[in-house]
Amino acid sequence: MASKNLVVLVNLGSPNNLSYKSIRIFLYNFLTDRRVVNLPKILWLPILFLFILTFRVKKLFKQYKSIWLKSESPLIYYSNAIATALQTRFSADDTHVVTAYSYSQPTLSNVISEFCANNEIKKLTIIPLFPQFSTTTTQTVFDQVYNHFKSLYSMGNINFISNFATHPLYIKAVANLIRANSDLKYNATKKLLFSFHGIPQVLVNKGDPYFNHCCQSATIIAQHLGLTADDYLVCFQSKFGSQKWLTPSTVESLKHLAQNKVANVDIICPGFICDCLETLEEIAIINKQIFIVNGGVNYNYIQCLNASSDIIDLLYNIVDK
Predict the structure, then answer these.
(1) pLDDT digits (tens, 9 = 90+) for 109-152
(2) Which DSSP category does 95 fall into?
(3) Which of 73, 111, 281, 318 has the least CB density, counted as fewest CB within 10 Å?
(4) Cβ neighbours around 85 below 10 Å, total
(5) Any idea what the Cα angle at residue 43 is, between residues 42 and 45, rounded to 5°?
(6) Cα Dmax for the chain
(7) Residue 250 near residue 287, CB atoms below 8 Å
(8) Helices 108-118 + 138-149 axis angle, to 10
């Protein structure tokens, strides 16, 4: 058997096709992970089956349809494009780059098993495509690594990248993206928003470093661009459920800015490497409407890094060769 290095890029996942059934399966996989929803099953499962999997699926179908590409979701499309571009960067025949997903196909365990069937893995590098560590994202990937190997008798050399929130090439990549899509002339009537996906506050209270990672990323990116603290703000989106989540919320921040004569905003989501439902529909469409309705004028959503050369440079650099 050939001995190879395997690099697995792991993203959250999405429905495998645009159908009610596929969306329902994805939601079930996602919302039954105890890292994502940490409620007693006796309380959570009735809510999940009676309400979310029954009524929310119809709403999500319309939302996914508004952003769906020809044959797949943007998240899957861009994740695969990143893997293809990164594979090209590795000229050596002994490195193989693939994608896997936490809550859709192919799963991390299936990818590793399939590769091991034909090759001996010399080194396994796992890169969750989440710049900032959270128990709700990166930790779930680590759980899957553990679950895959716990019953085996060999695991080889594993390199798990837990975060790259302050990596110089990540900072450079996001800063370049903002610079290419903004004049950077921020003042009393124009602001830059860093919108990160929110998580329940209780997780941060228990030690999850996500909030600190987000603030560190935003601060260093802003410094790289020569911005002052008055030029930008950090906010959190996609609140789900009744728990207290990280604040300030993106929606409330946009309302406040618009109502206080900030007519122009640039908004970017540095916690997402790939554009997806939360960026293309929630941020680019819904939140834009909220900003305009409340008095805003110019709303500029800056798309994610996706398969840009800068993100490929970063991922190539962090793989231990």
Answers:
(1) 999 999 888 777 889 999 999 999 999 999 999 999 999 999 88
(2) E
(3) 318
(4) 17
(5) 75
(6) 66
(7) yes
(8) 40
Report DSSP state, residue 72: S
Cα–Cα separations (whole angstroms), residue 45 to 23, 24, 52, 53, 202: 17, 14, 10, 10, 21
Nearest to 99 by CA among 7, 23, 3, 4: 7
In the block, tokens 């798990």 appear at 160
Record the tokens describing residue 291, joined without a space.
Answer: 């900003």
Of 280, 9, 308, 12, residue with least CA distance to 170: 308
Residue pair 178/266 in contact (Cβ under 8 Å)? The answer is yes
**Where are the alpha helices (H) located in 167-287, listed in sequence order?**
168-180, 201-205, 210-224, 250-259
Written as one letter, the residue type at 58 is K
Instruction: Tell me the CA distances in angstroms from 307 to 120, 140, 143, 154, 313, one per residue in order.
Output: 29, 24, 27, 34, 10
Q: Give the tokens for residue 318.
A: 């962090």
For 262-289, the pLDDT digits (tens) are 999 999 999 999 999 999 999 999 999 9
